[in-house]
Amino acid sequence: MSHDQRFGLQRHARLPGPLRLDGGGSLSPVEIAYETYGTLSPDGGNAVLICHALTGDQHVASVHPRTGKPGWWTRMVGEGRPIDPARHFIVCANVLGSCMGSSGPASLDPLTVKPFAMSFPVITIRDMVRAQAMLLDHLGVGKLAAVVGGSMGGMQALSWAATYPERVARCVVIASTARHTAQNIAFHEVGRQAVMADPKWQGGAYYDDEPPAAGLAVARMAAHITYLSEAGLTEKFGRRLQGRDAKSFGFDADFQVESYLRHQGISFVDRFDANSYLYITRAMDYFDLAEEHGGRLANAFKGSATRFCLVSFDTDWLYPTAESRRVVHALNAAGAAASFVELSSPYGHDAFLLDSPELNRVVDGFLKAAA
Amino acid sequence: MSHDQRFGLQRHARLPGPLRLDGGGSLSPVEIAYETYGTLSPDGGNAVLICHALTGDQHVASVHPRTGKPGWWTRMVGEGRPIDPARHFIVCANVLGSCMGSSGPASLDPLTVKPFAMSFPVITIRDMVRAQAMLLDHLGVGKLAAVVGGSMGGMQALSWAATYPERVARCVVIASTARHTAQNIAFHEVGRQAVMADPKWQGGAYYDDEPPAAGLAVARMAAHITYLSEAGLTEKFGRRLQGRDAKSFGFDADFQVESYLRHQGISFVDRFDANSYLYITRAMDYFDLAEEHGGRLANAFKGSATRFCLVSFDTDWLYPTAESRRVVHALNAAGAAASFVELSSPYGHDAFLLDSPELNRVVDGFLKAAA
């Protein structure tokens, strides 16, 4: 395996822009960090865009340069997988607002040559999609064979199909939703308040000092609970104690689930920027595809020739099956081609990232059948 | 209405103890703040103990002296209500570890004449119950006509029936559980970490300075989401914006649900001690009635002559119906008399505190039928 295969082709584009934003402002230049796998076919018909989730990155199928961990979706993307560099030209870009090389609050503002921090414009899911479209123009990719995403990646996939219907042949939306509900917003707001309550946050201007690690860790812990099912937590941890025979009658991590959550919080702050967490959760909370189309979700897909595949998991309570079904109803009402399956898994929302032969079969079948 | 009727009989007992604690230590003296309503009958057979929830207090049916708000359960307790001072001698005591007058981390340690802070012993639900038993001894109440509680109050009611079966004629357990699950523990741990991440917490020794209000507010916000159902949040707030026509594209509270949660967090810190929050959540996480009885829940109720009434709400995802059913199965296995009903409500866990004629009918019928 060559260096490039193992680490992917880590690339970076500095696009002149300007990128017009839903909030009214614009961004120029637009930095986009991305990876590609495979080769664009002569007719350009084999491009697959993969969209990542809230805290994901462009390292979908190759080693993460900072953590040394394998790509986050090697179960779906790679040799012999449903999305295969032998057949597809695979693009995965770090979303706008994130912190892995694309423009975000930690980027330098060209005007002040200091990090944007909270002067970075508030962005939307559609803004992320527009930035990805600029990247594809830059790469010479016209029409996508497929756009594929789970969780926030699924929101981008839906937004792609609604914003650039002529550029999307197939759209795969996994464990996702067309809008954030009040409960989704509430959990994100807790996370944002946890970050902003940390005195080290300093109104976002912490880049010369220590980051608000404690606040961000609490935010991650709260969010992490929503990624797992109650049954999954019980199966994995139950009430088992952490390396002890008896309760400590203190406030250390007595239970394994406490220790696990603390670890999730602490390890997260090493790889993620707190301001990016604020901006991306805000973009997700703002997401309501129906609202962008006159209040009727079906309008987002009217006359679309895109073929859609939706997958939900029965124990996902963050974006439950009912939300996928709502999208399918809208697709049906719009006359768009849609397949939908609810898969069974004990692992809640996180199931889309875990080993799921059924998920792989569904995606593989959908991508091949539509070819 | 007299002063005493409006404000209840605010009372305070300083009991010599010692109170032996599950953690191995003991407490002496034991301070208990409580209220009573009605009069103990000559045969002593009309006493009802009401146990409050995590952030509740003794002001069950009379004005809260600090907030000026009416009692927290006037729908259930009062003239013409299922628990009626005209018929019952009603006792409600602030739980051990709390901050409304009973011994807790904010109390003065008699040895140092400073607040205990984190040197207060870690307590259990059973310790709270033992303290209540000491109070009842002090009040001359032998056997309870009923012990009644919702949420953590229900845990105490179950613990009462298991610890002092001969003192409990009837036991009413509403929206509660016989153990904290991994998910329950996880949410509490997020709250504790939010408090402890606040630099103002100072290892608990903040009583001469400002309290860790920001951390406690975040803890309350996270917990509050678990008290409401997804459907209830959608009905109450949906994606409605807060006093604006359009999104702000900033980080103020754009959505009504954000504003509501922030208010819940901020108003909570005015009435609650952060260290008490740590201690009481810990007691709840430690609660597993089966574990205290050789790992078999039915053992907790073996040979019990107490009559039980369990009520759950269909949208309560904090202590879902399955947890009540588990208790009922154990009661059946132990040969104890148990009635059980799942009520329908859109309001999630909080339903037990809200207007519910059905709940009132169930409790009223149970208390009268068993008389």
From TrEMBL, chains A, B:
Its EC number is 2.3.1.31. Pathway: Amino-acid biosynthesis; L-methionine biosynthesis via de novo pathway; O-acetyl-L-homoserine from L-homoserine: step 1/1. It comes from the Bacteria. It catalyses: L-homoserine + acetyl-CoA = O-acetyl-L-homoserine + CoA. It is found in: Cytoplasm. One of its GO terms (molecular function) is homoserine O-acetyltransferase activity. One of its GO terms (biological process) is homoserine metabolic process. It is an enzyme of class 2 (transferase). Keywords: Acyltransferase, Amino-acid biosynthesis, Cytoplasm, Methionine biosynthesis, Transferase. SUPFAM superfamilies: alpha/beta-Hydrolases. Substrate binds at R220, D350. Coiled coil: none annotated. Residues 46-354 form the AB hydrolase-1 domain. The keyword Amino-acid biosynthesis applies. Pfam families: Abhydrolase_1. GO terms for cellular component: cytoplasm. InterPro entries: AB_hydrolase_1, AB_hydrolase_fold, HAT_MetX-like. Homodimer. Belongs to the AB hydrolase superfamily. MetX family. Transfers an acetyl group from acetyl-CoA to L-homoserine, forming acetyl-L-homoserine. This is Homoserine O-acetyltransferase. The gene is metXA.
